[in-house]
Request: fold
Amino acid sequence: MRNVLFIGMVMVLFVSLGCGSKKSSRGYDSSDELKYVDGYTQTGLASWYGDKEHGNLAASGERFSKYDYTAAHKSLPFGTVVRVTNLENGMDVVVKINDRGPFIRGRIIDLSYSSAKSIDLIRTGVAKVKVEVISSPSKRNQNYFNPIYTVQVGSFSSKVNAMSLKDELGSGIAREARIESIEIKGDTYYRVRVGMYSSKSKAESMKRNLRNNGYNGKVILE
Reply:
């Protein structure tokens, strides 16, 4: 009798554990989801996807578009907003996690086509990146994610050169010019950026204005 009860308890426990996690269409186990993500950073390889998956449902239930600024991660909760920095060139992009993956050893994040293109990842296919959590669903409402665009006019290893360009822009065409620094492979680079725009069209307008005044700029997603 005791043996029968023991076997029954084991079977109940097994069923309970089996129901405690849910596999997504991309093979993700929800029990792996990170519970605490404030200040979370991760360094590893990024890749991109989207041609075959475009129009299908992502693991979050959203309709996947390769043109949206989204990404797949193995464990960050859906709706988490992260900054992904390409450590090979210093370019970065802000994306929302809405899918699961990548499931290739050594890779930590899969970017949508547009996200990958904005940090020059399409050409190489894979690159070393840093992933930084800047907003988690537990700390905000679901309407938090609003794209912010800026125009990058230059990137320098010399802070003096960056300051010179910033002052030059600030005295005339772009008073809102600023410097943002980033560390890549132990070296610090100083990026000169102009404006914070809620729409890409406004950023493109500033880019044209800069070009008309002799400055080459590139619109990027903050």
Summary: The chain is about 20% helix and 35% strand. The beta strands are 41-49, 70-73, 81-86, 92-99, 107-112, 127-135, 149-156, 177-184, 187-197, 218-221. The helical segments are 2-19, 113-118, 159-170, 200-212.
